[in-house]
Amino acid sequence: MSSLAMPVLILLSLALIAPLVILLRQSLTGEGGQLTLANYAALVTSPAYRRALLNSVLIAVSSTALALALCLPVAIYIERSVSRYRNALAVALTIPLSLPGIVIGFFVILLFGLTGIVPQIFLLITGERQFNFAYTFWGMLLGYLYFQIPRAVLVLRGAVSALSQDVIDVSRTLGATPWRVYLDVILPALSPALLNAASVSLATAFGAFGTAATLSRGFRVLPLEIASLFTESFQVERAAGLSIALTCLTVAVLFGLGRAGERAQR
Amino acid sequence: MTTLPDSAYGSQANVSARREQRRQAPNPIMAIGRGFTWFAVLLCLAPMPLLLVVATTANWPLGFWAGGFTLGWLREGWATVHPYALFSLRLALTVLAIDLAVGLPAAWLIARHAFPGRQALLALINVPLAVPGIAIALALILAYPLARASGLLLIAGQVVYTLPFLVATLAPALAQPALIEREAVARTLGASAMQRLLYITLPAIRSALLAALILVFTLSMGEFNVSFFLFTPLNKTLPIELYSAYITNRVEVAAAITLIFLAFVVPAAIAIERLGGSKIGQA
User: Fold this and answer.
1) Does residue B151 belong to the interface with chain A, where contact is any CB pair within 8 Å?
2) Domain spans in chain B, listed from the N-terminal domain onward
3) What is the residue range of A207's domain?
4) How confident is the model at residue B5 (pLDDT cuts 50, 70, 90)?
5) Are the Cβ atoms of A230 and B54 closer than 8 angstroms?
6) Which end of chain A is least crowded, N or C, by CB within 10 Å?
């Protein structure tokens, strides 16, 4: 039995554990080789990194809120509808899962870039390019939303399929408005799944690099700062510190919201 | 003509009455759901036909099919990227083989045995789900700076990143009680371990296995965050080449290359969904 675990243990200790330990050690090393926390303190003391951290949180939280608000009705519709397009819609909403972040960024450029389709159409009609926001915060927000939609739908669909239709029907029959049904029936019953979907969306957004690298012109997020520290200025220790900090942030979100979801279930 | 009991008519009538009711008084919750769903699908799919239009337009910045329809960009795109597409294919197959050799025994252990440390093993395999791709890549490059040129780090990074998905797809299939029972019966009838694996286990888990293989293949073909730090000019993947096209090339060529990339990935994604194996990866 233990011989079956050997390959995976050897592989992961060499290719995951040892490298992460070395990353941690580098992050605690100063320029002279001494032990230091300066690489972490930079997140607070350096205006650029503080900005990047705040930007990361800002775009992750706002795209997650949008994704949940959009995907909850979607999950309910896909699980409950008798429409013959149901399966096709479900498949269509999983396709973005297999797209890398860079491709998603390019999609935003095709839609809202300077020569994107929407600005082109406006140019034809009004003679002026409008909505060419691909390279701003709003373009990045759309890209983040794009990769969060399939993730949120997948998590929420599972929970909706376990939710009793009778509860919704009964409250509708008793005269509850749709708004009340959402607030008083659906939201409380699905709150564990919503927390779960939020943790997946936030974690994905914190780590997202491809979308940001393709779209960012000035709106810097942490993964971009890590990449440029490593490839441009070769400050390995600083890059390691920011990487570990980003990892801790992601793990904290996954565990914190996961724990909250479990509590909501009880 | 035989007569059916009244209750049969009754339930039939009930169902159609309910359907009728639904048609007459559209449920606002479903109406909101339908609107949002079509919006989300439109958002997700609209870029694909657009990609086709841009890739076949001679001069896109001037508008739809400005300068005429052309396959030139697709030809140019393929000429640029085919070495990288082939490299990515080879890499994906290598990653697949290693994942299977390491992940199948691990999935088996996790599905079949209650041993101390089982949770820890599962948690260890799942660590890469919580670590951003660029952190994994940076860690690998700091640990083995000399191995980068060989391309080994690229393989290692992608194996580590895809392994949780393989194990999460295979373990539930291996844990089915009916399968365990059939293996036990085969054993009492004298089948060897190899015979049981080949004739009982593998056929029983074939759709999960297929889903897992396609999933790892797709994830590897599209991987960017881990590969970005680990590639070298000799070991360059298709997504890395896509990225440089986005940054430097004209939009028509970028669209053409993306179209070529999607031809590898989208059919696989649809196959995974049909096999019931959608999983959540990094972006």
Assistant:
1) no
2) 6-62, 72-274
3) 40-265
4) very low
5) no
6) C
Whether the per-residue pLDDT at B92 is higher than 90: the answer is: yes
Minimal CA separation from A112 to chain B, in Å: 11
Q: CATH assignment of B72-274?
A: 1.10.3720.10
Distance (Å) from the C-alpha of residue B169 to the closest C-alpha of chain A? 15
> Which among B39, B225, B258 has the least Cβ separation from residue A106?
B258
The structural domain count of chain A equals 2
Per-residue pLDDT at B7? 43
- CA B7 to chain A, closest CA, distance in angstroms equals 23
Which of B131, B144, B248 should we substitute to test contact with A (largest number of A Cβ atoms within 10 Å)?
B131
One domain for residues A16 and A65: no
Under a CB-based contact definition with an 8 Å cutoff, are residues B273 and B208 in contact? no
Q: Does residue A46 sit in the same domain as residue A31? A: no
pLDDT digits 0-9 by tens, A193-241: 999 999 999 999 999 999 999 999 989 999 999 999 998 988 999 999 9
What pLDDT was estimated at residue B2?
A: 41
> Which of A97, A115, A173 best probes binding to B when mutated, by most B CB atoms within 10 angstroms?
A97
Is the domain of A156 the same as that of A235?
yes
Cα B215 to Cα A7, B167, B211: the distances in Å are 21, 11, 6
Same domain, A19 and A118: no
Smallest CA–CA separation between A136 and chain B, in Å?
16
With a CB-CB cutoff of 8 Å, which residues 167-186 of chain B face chain A? none
ipTM: 0.89
- The answer, for B14 touching chain A at a CB cutoff of 8 Å, is no
A227–B254 CB contact, under 8 Å: no
Cβ–Cβ gap B40/A77 under 8 Å: no
Low-confidence ranges of chain A (pLDDT < 70): 1, 266
